[in-house]
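[job 4417] fold queue: 2 targets
>>> target A
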Amino acid sequence: MSKAGDTAKAESEGASASQTSTLTSLKSTISSQLLSSNMSKAGATPKTESEWASASQIRTLTSLQSTISSLELINSLRRKRDLMSLLCSYPLDMRVIFDDFISKPYCESKLPLKLEGLLPKAIIRDAENGDMSGSNFIFGDANLDFIPEAILDMAADLAVHQLMQTLISICKSKNPKHAKCIRLSTRSDVEKRTVMEKVTAALNDKHHSLDILNSFHGHLTIDATGYPTSEAEKELKQHICQLLQLSTIKYDDILCTLQIEDEMSRSRYLVILVDRDGEEIVDPQKVGLYGTLLTGVLVIITTDSPSSQQAKEGGLKDGLVNLEIRTKEHLLPWVVFCDTAGKEFVYSSDAILTTAVRIVEECRSHLHAILLVAKWLKNHQDVRMWELALHKLQFTNPSHDVINFHGLNSIMINTFLNLTWDGMNKTQQNCLLSCSGIPKIRDGMVDHELMNHWMSSLFVDAGETEKNLRQLVENSIFLQFDGVGGRYIWLPEETYQMLEWLCTSYPLLIEKSNLGLTEPPNTDKWHNAVRIELAGNKISELPESLDCVQLKVLMLQQNADLTKLPSSFFYHMPLLCILNLSYTSVRELPRSLFFLEQLRELYLKGCECFMKLPPEIGNLEKLEKLDLDETQITHLPKEVQKLTNMQSLTLCFYEYRVKKNRSYSCSTIIPSGVLSKLKRLEHLFIGVNPDDERWNENVQAILPEILGLECLKTLSMYIPQVELLKLIPAHIFKLDFRFIVGRHMQRIISSIPPATDVEFKQSNRSLKFVKGEGVTDEIKMLLRHSKALFLDRHFTLKSLTEFEMKNLEQLRVCILAECKEMQTIVGGGDLDDNIDMLPHLLFLSIFQMKNLRSIWEGSTPPPCLFGMCCSLCHCKVVPS
């Protein structure tokens, strides 16, 4: 991407400096003329000669006002063009900012919103308004005397650097005529001569010589200071002809000019023109250096002092200048530093001022580095802090291998690692490191989207997340701007790349799942990890103890060879929030686990060797989710009642007993009074061995407790007696319920295909009715709110119609198995053919219905049968 040269956009030529200076007076004239006009109503028809004259005058003034608006737009675009060119010459990666600027139409180009985080608002405002002064947004001319000489000299260096970058861009551009004239304005004649010397030295540099001078037919340096007045222009033109090795005719001024113009149009030259001292300036057009056929580049080094502004209005028109470079504007790094750190503190003592100058010189023009240092020093008056900052900028941190930051600016590396990174707390560091996985943050993302990412990935609460984001923005680590949809946060490319490297050395996420590992990898890097995923491996042993002070998520599920956890394994994991041991072979939980005060989620699903939940589980008072599905526990310890933050509880009581008549270790599955204490419970799943006679009595005791949980949203349980449905209030049917009702029997081999079983289990508001006899009002009420029905071995039902079709209107899934008396699915009785029966049914499965002779009976089948998925197994069906 080309930088300064490509920033300049094609603009309308011919708007002179004198026109610009008369904008205010023209506005005043228009206002007074309009006020004195007798035409009080827009569009009034003139009747007298004076009114016609007045109307003509207004049309003229309207045209003038339009001209003024156009000039204001051009001035604004020039200022924005010059500012963007300046910024593109600085080391900060301007890719995103630059692309945003040039992507807009010329007449609509506004300064990119991302500059809001880099520059003082006054500078952006003046550039948008087209302020042509070039110094007002810095300190103002009256304050230039207070700027240290070293900073003024640095500004001159930066201006020359911008010129060199612009020339290189022009030489590499596919459109070499893009920028013909560049004006480099200095503060004074003294600085002008200094800049000329710096330009000459830069062009003599071998790198610039190869990139720039080899692209031109010739290079001219014309020093007009030896021709102090306009009367000496003839001699100046004679001098130019001699430099061009053109034959000259003495005293023939016109022919001399034509010869220069002809040579300039035929050959590509780089011309450096040093303007006269004082108020009289050289007009390049009068000496033949700027014609319409100019193919090279003209650089005019002049002064920009207030005393010479009026005199310069008669010189080269602003419309013909493609880029304006001002040394004053390269005081920007110093302005940003003073504005951020506090100007009153910078100038509070000679020692601090001297150190501040050295800091800005060290940072050169890296605006983000300057912002970071200035924020670190903000409001500090102790000179030792300023000296420490300077030392850290010059010091390479031995704890980081700088080789890994190849290609990045060294001053930014030192600033970020030595000042910014080391000064952040661990949570802020983790928030930043997590951004390395969000590439779009380099372009900008809405602040609440970033905060949501932190909350979900780092388990940081909303208040702390907002606080950390605010501090990171205040310290200029993140830059922000207001855009469509809210406040946007963006991270410069250099910072993003450093975070990517830091993540490899201090990973937040260690993801090594499904790799067949037999032991935990990279345990030396677990110290900084927030999330470790080792699922689906062959790990059989874990280290006795690991220092994982930042760890919040540990995923060890599906390591079937893992039978035991070391007793002290969790002692150094104080922040652990989520632990997943599902489908491992662990038999018990180590003592250290019950000291995890921050643990919120514990998964033991599928741990078939896990047979007892110890009473110490009550120590985990912040536990919100506990999954014991497919375990072999026989009862719930009463200490579970201490888990008052519990929101999701999955229980499974399927102890395998070798001898059927062997007594259970506890006479009660769920002690009374336990579930009623879990007042925040939203999801409750209770799986019970249907052969367990303890449940018949236990369910009657705990059912009222369950039904009294006000936050409950999901309830799954086994209700062995239909009569117990009478205890269930109507509001429970509005929940996502999954009920098994009737004399259930555990089957070793099921006749139901796995896909059908999954279809039913994934349905919400489901009823599995087992070994039923007749049709009760309680079953009808439950069916009225059910979306899935599994009718298993009903002894007397001959048709679903017996449930009354109005109670089946919500059904989407229907599974019928071994209902030996059923003859038809829908039919029998007095059916109204005009009623849409089973209107929402999508899935129908029928198994081993030996007496079934039809799906429906009647003249017209239900419409649902034409669009649903239907499967029949071991059934002889004869449609009627």
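>>> target B
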Amino acid sequence: MDGDVMIASYFPLYILRVRSRNKDTPKHKEERLVIFKNYQFILALTFAVEEINKNPHLLHNLTLGFEFCNFEFAIWNELKSAILCLFGKYNTLNYTCMGHSKYTAVLTGPSGIISAQLGTLLNLYMFPQFSFGPFDQALSNHNKFPALYQMAQKDTSIATAMVSLLLHFRWNWVGLLTLEDENGLWILLELKEEMAKNRVCVEFELAVPNNILFHKTKLKVVDNHLKKSSANVFIIYGDNELLLVVQLVIQGKICILNSQWDLSMSRFYFVLGSPQVPLIFSRHHPDVSGFADFVKAVNPSKYPEDTFLAKVWLASFKCSDSQSDCVTWENCAHNASLDLLPRHVLDTNLSVDSYNIYNAVYTVAHALHEMLLHQAEVQTMGKGKKTVPSPAQLHALLKNIQFQNPAGDQVTWDEKKKLEAEYDIVNIWNFPHGLHLEVKVGTFSPYAHQLSLSEEMIQWTIASTEPPHSVCSIGCGPGFRKAPQEGKAACCFDCTACSENEMANGTDMEKCVKCPDHQYANTQRNQCLLRAASFLAYGEPLGMALACMALGLSTLAAAILGVFVKHHNTPIVKANNQALSYILLISLIFCFLCSLLFIGRPNSVTCILQQTTFGVAFTAAVSAILAKTVTVVLAFKVTSPGRRMRWLLVSRAPNFIIPICILIQVILCGIWLGTSPPFIDTDTYSEHGHVILLCNKASLTAFYCVLGYLGSLALASFTVAFLARNLPDTFNEAKFLTFSMLVFCSVWLTFLPVYHSAKGKVMVAVEVFSILASSAGLLGCIFVPKCYIILIRSGGRPREPLISSLSMHSFSTMKQGVHMDGDVMIATYFPLYILTVPSHDNNAPEHENERRKYTAVLTGPSGITSAKLGTLLNLYRFPQMELGGTANRRG
């Protein structure tokens, strides 16, 4: 197309003939297919030039034109055809005057290799070169290519877009395949950085050298590597040569491709049921108004100088006469149009590369327009005179050019003002006979980092309608967490069940989440459930059993107290210090009842009363036993009535032991409550699914001080009772006290290790059982034998006071049959040298309804006997008269 200003276009127009795959087919019957895909570049160039020439606001006195030079795939042919195209057949290189060149700019592409090879030549003459192919990192070196301008936008966000697609389908095990050039190395770094941010793992990365089809050894290595791969998704970033490698070696994989793939290069690449699933990221561009109508109107009659269009028309619509070889356009179908051709032969939809050509032509037009405006300010042009700027003059304007094309896009070379590329995601729909359809299934916006995808429109393999998986390890379900495998990528892991009281309610969780204290993890470890409050309740069997034991034993203690009160005048009650027995029994009743404070739902009051009531009640009981043992020892160790011990016994000094001991315990409890009182606490570990309510002692030191003080009293009582174990056999309370304290100490010594090993309600139950067991031991060992004597051995009748009391002494008692009744009775107690056992004959005369009341006791003649009996009789203030001589009297 002629014009005042010419643009040279230099790119290949492929005519690809693909032979039939059937090797037995004769050569003359081989199936051939002519592909005119790159002819769209000519159509876009023609459309842009005509649109500019029709625009009255651009290039008022000048017209644009272009000349196309076909590209041949040989280095010498490339340079030769370029020189002939640019300088003419008869001009000698390096000697021609470039100022008289008819070309203002050169369009090259779509391959970066073509642009780079021609750029070296064009830079010598500072020809403005516009590369309309995909952005090439090698061409961005302005020092090496100062006159080259890339129309395509940088793929700054393509790595983010591809990784977003991986995340959408949860593909985290991916292979990377690129060319071994600057573009491949750049995209590898971008992809690996973006994948690392989103925890997507790279199984392998292969950089394939250029012209690998001519290196069979390297091709075989790549083939073996890809076949061994366990990843189902490959990201492939390269050119059409790499596409052929993919066709040869990749089977059954999902291929995520960049936009510079020419799928029409191989007719049989995506056939029906093909195992490859291509998802192509194509740069988004707006529709150019009028282009579709322009393509419909194109025909050889309208552009007779376009010899390539004639070849397209003849090959596609068979315009030759069957009876002659004469070709006339009248023989073609009247409705023949390029938009009727299959898309795999000629796609009439404006491609990305064609859109870049469209913008390149407009860039040249705007630069020329600016230059003409500048020249108009400097000089006045003559009428009809046309001044054509030289190519070198355009560079200053091109670097600062900025305009809006008719489609509404902003075109500029300012990197700060340049918009990032948006992407359309294209899927290939396969049809029989090698036909395919490119279908837009989604978009990606770099500004919002938003991926929009219509999964139902994606055609997967013929055997599946669902997207396949591409993971190193199968995902961990709820209740499990990922445990990394040593020495492997982060995406390779084992699934480990969550620990107790931890849960994972999602898939592929890195860590399990610990449930709050008031919740617990279910058996599946996938959710936290509310814990049910649990405590040693009266309604459960253990609590009911302990409560019944406490009430039963306290009732028994109260009954024994009633027996002692009823038979308070009996010698066995009097002889064992009646007041101390009452105090001990009342203390034991409180000991039994205080165990009820440990049963039931705890609250602040019960938590405080538990330990203080327990400590004071047991202190009273143990101190009462200590007082009894001290009294017994004092009574039977006093052999000299005038000694100080006799004064201690007569003054009832042992009775002060109880209030003193209780006072010390009260002080300890007061310090405990004042510094760190017990409080309500929860135990979430002892029982699964329950939160146990219990009383926290707050200060273990204070608790063990109370318990230790109680233990020291018990040890003292045991020691004193043990010292009195050799008293005469007939007075056996010392042995009972010794045995009772042995039981008491044994229970609480056993309590300590069991209490520390128990948890939750069991710990409370152990303490309650120890209280009941130790109290029951005291009650049983001390008072049960006395009740047996009172209720059973005496048949329920009280025996004679003095005789009964003396029967527990160290002397044998012989009941005489001789007596004399009277209003005032005198007891005589002395040996008659006849040692007999008291008769238990049921026929012996008894005075059942008569209680003898003695006024005085007559003892002797031995002073030792009188002294020993005097100690006992002084307790009850009996008048004692001694029969011995004056030398044996003791006051």
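[job 4417] complete. Note on B: The CA atoms of residues 551 and 734 lie 29 Å apart.
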